Amino acid sequence: MPFEAPVAKEEVMYFTRQSYFASPVTLPYFDNKGNYVASLGKITRWLADIAEKKGVQIFPGFSAAELLYDNGKVTGVRTAASGIDKHGEPMPNYQPPTDVRARLTILAEGTRGSLTKTLVRQFNLDKDRNPQIYSLGVKEVWEIPEGRIEPGYVAHSMGYPLSIDQFGGAFIYGMSKTVVALGLAVGLDYADPTFDPHHAFQIYKKHPFVAKLLQGGKILRYGAKTIPEGGYYAIPQLYHDNVMIVGDSAGLVAMPSLKGIHLAIYSGMLAAKTAFEALQKNDTSQQQLRHYEELFRQSPIYKALYPVRNFRQGFKSNLIAGMMQFGTQLVTGGRGFSLSGKLEMAEDYKHYHLLQHLNGSTFNSKYNGQLAFDKKTTFDKETNVFYSGTKHDEEQPSHIVVPNLATCQECIEKYNAPCQGFCPANVFEIVTELKNGRKSLVLHPSNCVHCKTCDIKDPFHNVTWTPPYGGDGPEYVNM
Amino acid sequence: MKQVPLPSEMRMGADGLMDRTRAKSMINVDCTFGLEQGLEIKARVPDAELIVVSMGPGSFEQSLRKAISLGYDRAVLLSDKRLGGSDTFATGLALSTLLKTKLLPPDSKDPFIIFAGRQTSDGDTAHVPSQVGENLDIPQATFVEEVDYHGDYVEVVRMIEGGHQRLRVPVPCIISVAPTAIHARRPSLSDAIRAREAQIETYTLDDIGLAPAEVGLGGSPTLVSKVVNIKRSRPPVTMLQGKTPEALFVELAPVFDENYVPPSAAHDAADQEDTEDEDEPETEEQKAKYAAYPRVDFRKGAKGILTWIEMNDDHVAHSSFEILNPARRLADELQTTVTSVLIGDNVTSFAKQVIAHGADEVIVVNDPRLKEYSTLPFTAVISQIIKARNPEIALFGATTSGRELAPRLGSRVKAGVTADCTILKIGDFVNKKQKAILYPCLEAIRPTYGESKLATIIGFWCPQMATARPGTFEALPVDHSRQGKSPNSKLNSAQKTSSSTSSIPSATKAEVRVCSAPTSSSAGAGLAAKSTTSNSSKNSPSRSKSGDSKPTGAPAGRPSTGASRHIVARSVNRAKPCDPRCTWLWPSPAPSSTPAA
Questions:
Q1: Does A241 reside within a domain?
Q2: Which residues pair with B393 in a beta bridge?
Q3: What is the interface pTM, i.e. ipTM, of the complex?
Q4: Can you give the pLDDT at residue A453?
């Protein structure tokens, strides 16, 4: 197994501006004894190799652009056409899409799946569920001088630079004696339109504890990813006629322990089992595929998710209240304060406060003096984008679609365009015309690192993230 | 198509070792543009069969499969250990033998077009397309940016110095495509699935009936005798800082006064240092042993230096004057003469200039059909001169024309060509097997591997041919008092040759009437107008303007040979001839290392 190191030492800390204190007890679900620090990129490559040896054909480098339907039932996917210019016109090197027809399609698109989104909408699969909510994780891998960290060192921290009403925290994982991964994950239900997860992470790196660790080292990689953390109540119905949903697309992440990969793998195994039976019986109807959900309910996934079904909702207002809620949930078997047993949660983009209501107490004003980056330990977004290795064919329609530019004007007035902040790759830029001071949006889709935050957090839901040409995107090595 | 190593993609990993998680090779970038042209034609002629052909080790399979995933029907690989060490001459021979024996229709009823990339990123010569064309005896067009397929001919737009040529090339033909043409499409999933299962047809030398002696090191007229690292290939980058333009100017002004050290000069230094601490230092003993070897003159009577004088519109291309500088110096060292070949229509008057720039003799070939440069007739003319004169060295400016003419000639007269040289000198070669010192070798030195190294290429087949980058050498000071052979005698020899040009038509088949007579500008404008209407969307503005500038050659007086016609139109983008040394900021090597003759 391509693991980096067994977990050797664990710490949970609370950061203040200049200092920190360690939690004297290991929090429930935070125990990682027996677990390993690993690079997901390496593990997926390793798994792919095993699958291919077993006869599974994998075709990387093609993006699924849309679901194919026949009589209202999914019958496969269509790949994206290529060779289309910025204006949507086919060029001489146009390559038409390929239709992949299948009796059974399993959607494994990762977080905020573009096809999953349309499928859920099409069949109302999220009926009576909470909307899915997300965190954005921003991460860097560093090479540091030997002697500062042990392989398998795991540290989680809360607090600085996040405010008390924000859900989120930072992590440091020792991958080897000289390589460390660190990052900051922030709930996207924050209210401050000027908040910038990337900048918050850079400020975090200036904290004495982190700065000491990184001093004299150098950045190797940068990346960002959203995490579906709505929990049990945000999981849509995971099947319909001829189709199933697995992994992050299904929202299988256990928040208290911050883990989802093992659940994703498990869901894939259950879906495979269901598919095998269905194909043998030559019945891929939803009645047959319901078996996937039955297996799910008997599986460790359910056991991991159900008791913490209200965990994330409890942190809606602030960290202390969340901790208290979590305490009550622990003793009530997950029910917590709620009467129905289910705490509600609104979609992430609905939480913004109008700038005028914030009276200047914003992230930007609070950290005004800290937003200069020295390009040694802290970086601006463009520099970080370089370290993500992201690449896109420049000659293609923007894969980030902003349907209504008039809305952007309203957004600039009310919220000063939060897209500038939430995007960790500077895809969205607001430019001001020198002549008349008019502000407008300029897109840099080739910067995109495919975290899909824009699809989630735009205050007017005015951004749709679609897959660009297959194979385009960040190149995550050792991430 | 050729597979090449990834350029500079190799990065050091955290462990200090090479990061090998990436694929280590890729399809040569220029070749992808060639592949795309095939796919373009297939889109218009659906029953055309697309075959991708490569020569190399078995690992090339991944690139051949990639080509299938783009839409190619078949993939063919010529793979044989005995091909190792083949230079472009031998590669051209091997590939064309493969095509002849295994792929091309024997009855010539099925028309075919061969597309190739302009050049490779690892070899950089741009020779192989010309050499395959010569070995297959088909017309060629190189450095092509646009291709328009018309069934029995293709109309192409070809880069030339300072402009473009529009050529009509009869099918069958070979076309090398520049990386300014249409980008290669992406694979389609359906073709990617097909590619996974596809059979790669692999042949060995035995399969194609080619003797191992004709390829590999033995069949190659050139060999790499030495490679040294370039210590400093370009000036260091300095970031000037200043808040106002005035402050910046104060910083910038002294930079103008600094002397720029050209790469060639840097090499001379590097050369001396590197040979000191070479991996295999020659011991005194060995040196003594080698010194005792007999010195062998390998030239077998070949004598003299030949250069080609390229006409650019109504003046001599500056690169042709530049090449006379090393030619002069080499000739003085070898105690021989420089003969220049001047081909065109009514160009005798330029011979004086050529002599003033350092030539001893100018062979002038005048013919209205030779007004405009075209590969086949020019190859025919120069190869006849080479056969008659038997020169030991032949030098060409590395313009787009020189870079296709030289390799085609090389394959015709069985000589090796070194492309894009920056240094030319005479040296000895210790042949340890033969236990002899071969002299006097032309050491053709050129940057290679992304300009990171300087390779010294030598060869023992005469003439030893080389092309030199424009701007590398400084033209010698003009000396009008120089006496070459009297113009009369030149005219004589010109007449002699031009009488032999009567044999060009038969020798060049399809391209007999390649060069049209001087024409009225309306004909040229008409052609240019056609290019703007048919390709208006992708024509660069500069090219669209070509109709307004001065088209100088176009198909008036059209011969009646139909498909065998080869129309030449020329559009000039720049008003002035390109003189690289005018552009100060570009680090084109200023010629200081070349001692004056």
A1: yes
A2: B305, B464
A3: 0.85
A4: 97
Q: Does A68 lie at the interface with B, CB-CB under 8 angstroms? A: no
**B531 and B494 within one domain:** no
The band of B411, judged by pLDDT with boundaries at 50, 70 and 90, is very high
Q: Is B41 at the interface with chain A, CB within 8 A?
A: no
Rounded-to-integer distance, Cα A10 and Cα A26, Å? 9
Cβ separation of A95 and B190 shorter than 8 Å?
Answer: no
Q: Identify the residue among A57, A77, A85, A98 best suited for mutation to test binding to B, counting B beta carbons within 10 A and taking the highest.
A: A98
* Whether pLDDT at B583 is above 50: no
Number of domains in chain B: 3
Domain that includes residue A278, residue range: 61-129+232-309
The residue segments making up the domain with residue B300 are: 292-507
Instruction: Please tell me the least confidently modeled range out of A161-170, B106-115, B438-447.
Output: B106-115
Runs of H (alpha helix) within B393-503: 400-413, 487-500
Which residues of chain B are within 8 Å of residue A83 when distances are taken between CB atoms? Answer: 185-186
Q: What is the pLDDT of residues A85-119, one digit of tens each?
A: 999 999 999 999 999 999 999 999 999 999 999 99
Inspect the interface and report whether the beta carbons of B14 and A395 lie closer than 8 Å.
Answer: no
* A153 found inside a domain: no
**pLDDT at residue B322 greater than cutoff 60:** yes
In the three-class reduction of DSSP (H, G, I as helix; E, B as strand; rest coil), residue A235 is classed as coil
B13 to chain A, closest Cα gap in Å: 9
Instruction: Give the burial class of A382: count Cβ atoms within 10 A of its Cβ; 0-12 exposed, 13-18 middle, 19 or more buried.
Output: exposed
Partner-chain contact A82 B185, CB within 8 Å: yes
List CB contacts (< 8 A) between A82 and chain B: 185-186
- What is the nearest CA distance from B136 to chain A, expressed in angstroms? 29
Q: What pLDDT shows up at residue B293?
A: 85
Of A323, A12, A27, residue with least CA distance to A171: A12
What CA dihedral angle connects B166, B170, B171 and B174, to 10 degrees? -50
Cα A244–chain centre separation = 21
CA distances for B484 relative to A280, B322, B498, angstroms: 92, 18, 20
pLDDT given for residue A39 in this prediction: 94
Average pLDDT (B514-531) is 28
Nearest by CB to residue B187, choosing from A61, A100, A393, is A61
Chain B partners within 8 Å of A43 (Cβ)? none
- Domain shared by B455 and B570, yes or no: no
B436-448 and B453-459 as β-strands: parallel, antiparallel, unpaired? antiparallel
Residue contact B14–A478, C-beta within 8 A: yes
> Which residues lie closer than 8 Å to B311 by C-beta, 6 or more apart?
B317, B342, B343, B344, B347, B350, B373
Q: How many domains does chain A have?
A: 1
Mean of the per-residue pLDDT values of chain A: 92
**Residues pairing with A64 in the sheet:** A79
Residue B508 has pLDDT above 50, yes or no: no
Closest-CA residue of A relative to B19 is A477
Task: Classify residue B268: in a domain, yes or no.
Answer: no
pLDDT in the model for residue B491: 34
Residue A260 maps to which CATH number?
3.50.50.60
B522 within domain boundaries? yes
Q: Does residue A452 register a pLDDT over 90?
A: yes
pLDDT of residue A442: 95
Q: For chain B, state the CA radius of gyration.
A: 25
| Main-chain dihedrals φ then ψ at residue B583, nearest 5 degrees | -85, 95
Same domain? B165 vs B29: yes
Structure tokens at B253: 């002004």
Helix (H, G, I), strand (E, B) or coil at B489: helix
Per-residue pLDDT tens over the stretch B355-398: 999 999 999 999 888 888 989 999 999 999 999 999 999 999 99
> Do residues A181 and A146 make contact, with C-beta atoms less than 8 angstroms apart?
no
What percent of chain B shows pLDDT beyond 70? 72
* B496 contact A CB<8A: no
